[in-house]
Amino acid sequence: MLRRGELPQLAAAILLAVGGEIALSGSVAAQDLAIPPVTFPTLPRQAASAQGFVPAGWSLEAQAAGDLDRDGIPDLALVLRQTEPKNVIANENGLGDNPLDTNPRILAVAVRSGPSGDYVLRLENHMLIPRRDDPVFADPLSETGGISIERGALRVGLYQFASAGGWGMSTTTYSFQFRGGQFVLIGFDRDSVARNTGVTESISINYLAGKMKIAHGTISSDASKVVWKRVAPRPPTIDEIGSGLEFDPER
């Protein structure tokens, strides 16, 4: 994941590299692709290890360990990905990845029942990490994306970049806290840049404090215009967010 202040430097480098890019209205590459339907499996409710939660036809793509339920015992956050060959489809339009891997992911969390006990499944989410269905958009877990457990919070980072069809690029980080059997959003950070103009926007929300900070600027200057807002007293749960790339915290 990018640290604060790193996005403008990265954007500047990309802006120079793609200065001759032509922005298209809509993704031509995705128009003729038939994305196969997916039936998600039901994960085991309990297992002795991370591998025990991986169903047949899926792989353990990423994992992180840390205490999420505040009992002093490390828990597990997992990213599972389907390995179905039929979901890797040909893209003959000439834009974006060819072939395109549309295999979906599951974000799962399992808490340990004791120092030597099994892990118990507490989260099975199919939406926050969106499935790839457009070859011109980067994998949301590439570059700065990924999962971690930091200071008792589950953190999920997503990356958005299109090689055609638009100039926007962004990194988004969600922070969730395990409360009352649910994962509740406590922090949201999104840094975005328009690669053609260099205009930047940073949104940072602390749901525990009820505050949102919005900063607008450009990659050519350290100066920014900052606006503070209050946020709703009831933050969403992870299952209420939907796609992590489409969530609008001001809606």
Task: Describe what you observe in this structure.
By secondary structure, this protein is mostly beta strands. The chain has one domain. It contains three helices and 14 strands. The chain has a seven-stranded antiparallel beta sheet, covered by helices on one side. The protein has a five-stranded antiparallel beta sheet with strand order 1-7-6-3-2, with no helix packed on it. Strand 6 and strand 7 form a beta hairpin. It is flat.
| Rg over CA atoms | 19 Å
Number of domains: 1
% residues in beta strands? 35-45%
Structure summary, number of beta strands? 14
The helix-and-strand class reads mainly beta
- What series of H and E elements makes up the topology? HHEEEEEEEEEEEEEEH
Summed up, the helix count is 3
Ends distance: 25 Å
Give the mean pLDDT.
88
| Gross geometry | flat
Helix content: under 10%
> Which spans of ≥5 residues are poorly predicted at pLDDT below 50?
1-26
The largest pleated sheet is described as: 7 strands, antiparallel
Biggest sheet: strands side by side, in what order?
Answer: 8-9-10-11-12-13-14
Features:
251 residues, five-stranded antiparallel sheet, single chain, mainly beta
Short précis:
This protein has one domain (6-19, 44-241). The chain has 3 helices and 14 strands. The protein has helices at 6-17, 28-31, 238-241; strands at residues 46-47, 58-66, 75-82, 88-89, 100-101, 105-112, 119-125, 146-150, 153-161, 168-179, 182-194, 199-206, 211-218, 224-230.
